[in-house]
Write a structure and sequence with these properties.
110 residues; alpha+beta; 5-stranded antiparallel β-sheet; 3 helices; 19% helix
C-alpha cells in the first residue's frame, strides 16, 4: 500500500499549479495543448504548436471567480481567450474571447 507521500510523488504537477497555486482548472484542456503558464502572466496559458514550434494557438484561462482575476471589475469578463500567432514575432491575435468554454472547444474542433 502506498503512503500519502508516495502517492503525491507519483502525481504529475502541472506548470499552472506551481505558477498559479490558487487557480482551479475546471475545464478539460484540448488535446495537443501544453501548459506554458508563467507567474508573470495574469493567468494560466496553454499552447498548441502548428507549422513548427513557435506558431500556433494559445489558450488563456482566467479564474472562475472574477474577484481573483487581474481584471475583477471588468463588465465583460472574457474568462477564456483563444489566440493564434507566433512566438518568433511576438504577435498573437484573439480568435475567440468568451466566458463560454464550449465556444472555445467548438472553434478548436472546427
Amino acid at each position: 500500500m502506498k503512503t500519502k507521500l508516495q502517492a503525491k510523488e507519483n502525481m504529475k504537477i502541472e506548470l499552472y499549479e506551481n505558477e498559479f497555486p490558487d487557480f482551479e482548472l475546471d475545464v478539460k484542456i484540448p488535446v495537443g495543448f501544453s501548459d506554458i503558464s508563467y507567474h508573470n502572466d495574469v493567468m494560466p496559458c496553454w499552447f498548441k504548436p502548428l507549422n513548427g514550434e513557435s506558431q500556433g494557438f494559445r489558450l488563456w484561462i482566467d479564474y472562475a471567480d472574477q474577484s481573483k482575476s487581474e481584471y475583477p471589475n471588468t463588465k465583460t469578463y472574457n474568462r477564456f481567450i483563444l489566440q493564434f500567432g507566433s512566438f518568433d514575432y511576438g504577435e498573437f491575435s484573439d480568435l475567440v474571447a468568451t466566458d463560454n468554454y464550449s465556444l472555445i472547444e467548438a472553434f478548436i474542433e472546427g
